[in-house]
Amino acid sequence: MSLSNPWFVIALVGVLGVFHLEFFATLLNLARLGRPVPPDLAEVFPEETREKLGEYIRDSKKVEFTQEVTLLGVLVVFWWSGGFGWLQNWAQSQGHGPVVTGVVVIGLVLLAQTWLSLPFQAWDTFGVEARHGFNKTTIGTFINDHFKGLALMALLGIPVAAALVWFFETQAWAALYAWLFLAGFTLLMTWLSPRVIMPVFLKFRPMEEGELKDAIFALARKLDFPVAEVSVVDGSRRSTKANAFFAGFGKTRRIALYDTLLESHGKEEIVAILAHEIGHNKCRHVPVMMTLNLLEMALMLGLLGWVLKSPGFFAAFGVQGTPVGMGLVLFGMIYKPLGVLTGLLGLAMSRKHEFEADAYAREAVGSHQPLTNGLKKLSHDHLAHPSPHPLTVWLHYSHPPLAERLAALQGNPRAV
């Protein structure tokens, strides 16, 4: 490891650069909490609510920043003390082939990251979220979720990691084969997740017959959107925050509504929120975003295939040779800055799609008012930032800030 190695410099600048960019964006965003709320949001964020959300956002960022500093410190110490080289040598000494060795290395690094992050997740859940009235998760549920997550990570992650290591160890067209494999796996998980994975953590029950269910199916028929079932999710077992989502393809689409959404929103608002989600489908946002993700994946795997052939890249981390499994771990460090740039495009496209889905919902229900009311309630109840800084929006927001969405819904788009 030396400054004369360009890979070392790239990795160092990437790790520290992204950290400082995020820190700078956080400071700018926190500073905006003291700004007056836009006039059209005064009723959503009265003074008492602004004080609460300011405390909530600061507390959340305190946990986030402490976690990032801790993980960065552990990474730098492990890196500069030769930890990656030691881990690779130990894994190879176990006498297994390159594929098993690579999977072991990847698994141990991910497990270490997971367990290092666990205390901060607990702090956030039982400290910040509980203090501000959001948390409903018990310690038992938290522990069960953790071990279920580890089991799923092993069940799904080990085969994927083994396949990727095998491709790059043995195949001349490894990047192409890996891309085809991951594309297929992504589509499979899109179908499996709501049917197999999410029920591991959440309980789904059919919505009871009644006025709301009739209104939902009436909306689906009006918009020619086939729905197989409507389910209620026990989100209140973990949080007071509300949510809703669609899952499935073709005639097997499922609508899932969190029980917290049903408790805090009226029928017209829920129907408008679902019309917004249907708008994403009708405007073909899902295939557009999937195409963008697949293109980024192709770029990432192409760069990975090139990097894995460079002994200098591995030497920058104190690793001898070109072991693929370790290379997959280390590549994530130097890909961060480029990942931020490609992420900007995806987030900008997502925000554009939200405006389009909002407009679709407005036309579908005949008025902007139901969705306007629903968005106001969601932002108020979730203690969302009323005036986030543009840099934070560019870096992290998949949805436009509330003021921009309301202005566009009411036919008066403007910058905030």
UniProtKB/TrEMBL annotation:
Cofactor: Zn(2+)
Transmembrane spans: 6-28, 69-87, 99-118, 150-168, 174-197, 288-308
Ranges where the Peptidase M48 domain occurs: 207-411
InterPro entries in alphabetical order: CAXX_Prtase_1, Peptidase_M48, Peptidase_M48_N
Keyword Hydrolase belongs to the record: yes
Gene3D superfamilies documented for this protein: Metalloproteases ('zincins'), catalytic domain (3.30.2010.10)
Name assigned to this protein: M48 family metallopeptidase
Species for this entry: Prosthecobacter algae
